[in-house]
Design a protein that fits this description.
Layout (H helix, E strand, L loop, with lengths): L6 E4 L5 E5 L4 E2 L6 H18 L7 E7 L5 H12 L9 E8 L5 H8 L5 H6 L4 E7 L4 E8 L8 E8 L2 H11 L4 E6 L13 H10 E9 L4 H9 L2 E5 L10 E5 L1
Parallel strand pairs: 4-5, 4-9, 5-8, 9-10
Antiparallel strand pairs: 1-2, 2-3, 6-7, 7-8, 10-12, 11-12
Helix pairs in contact: 1-2, 5-6, 6-7
Length: 252
């Protein structure tokens, strides 16, 4: 699909989103893409990590259905902003997967928003490297942010261009450390039910840190049933605009 076929929309918080023409579904709530990504994903991640008992030295995240990148970018921005509360943190790594490579030019536009001023203040312009992963048989795009101050964490985001259902088994097999959080942000279960299947959530359980979280925006019955069947306990997260809220799930 040509990226120019997307309808680009300005949202209430000054961020922007797209309308996916194939299914007539917007990527984000009208209250704002940044606001949604912060409340549903970044703030929930931060709260989870702060309950570890001690500051971790590394964090490893999965971002499934990367889209415009708000969830990953906002998580990194938030961790940097709150770095004083995580004094031992030295490395943050995110593995993200996105099917649509034509979204790539918009990732730069998102990072240029005023919402990500913290990243620009404490980090050099990210180094971007295009490679091909022989292990996963797909293209990867790696963003690396190096801090101006040695005590701040290095940030690495690796975006795999491909199908999540094909790539996640590879990630699971290659995963050497436990995952601290999974951001699950596929289009709605009504349109893509295969991306909300119990087998996907079972993969998350297999790699998740004992105190890690799975975070998603959907509260559909299909999603709740899949989380339960995978061995995850879920709780509702706060309401956002017209959206009833998302879910935060942990291993039982």
């Amino acid at each position: 699909m040509n990226a120019l076929t997307y309808e680009r929309l300005l949202l209430d918080d000054g961020s922007f989103t797209l309308r996916q023409p194939d299914i007539d579904e917007h990527y984000h709530n009208c209250i704002g893409a940044y606001t949604e990504s912060y409340r549903l994903y970044a703030s929930e991640l931060l709260g989870s990590v702060k309950h570890y008992g001690s500051s971790p030295t590394t964090l490893f995240l999965w971002d499934v259905c990367f889209g415009l990148g708000y969830n990953s970018f906002t998580a990194l921005n938030t961790l940097v902003h709150e770095r004083a509360t995580l004094p031992e943190l030295r490395h943050v790594t995110i593995n993200a997967v996105e099917m649509d490579a034509t979204l790539r030019p918009m990732w730069r536009d998102v990072l240029d928003l005023s919402h990500y001023e913290t990243l620009r203040q404490y980090y050099d312009v990210p180094t971007i490297v295009d490679e091909y992963s022989e292990l996963c048989s797909c293209k990867t795009i790696t963003y690396t942010w190096l801090p101006f101050a040695a005590q701040d964490p290095t940030l690495t985001l690796v975006i795999y261009i491909g199908d999540a259902l094909t790539l996640l088994p590879h990630w699971e097999a290659l995963q050497k450390t436990q995952v601290d959080a999974v951001f699950h942000d596929a289009f709605s279960p009504r349109h893509v039910p295969h991306l909300w299947d119990v087998s996907l959530f079972q993969t998350y359980v297999n790699v998740l840190h004992d105190e890690g979280v799975v975070l998603t925006y959907s509260m559909a019955r299909l999603v709740k049933d899949a989380l339960n069947a995978a061995g995850l306990s879920w709780a509702k997260t706060p309401r956002i605009g017209k959206q009833s809220g998302g879910m935060r799930a942990v291993k039982r």
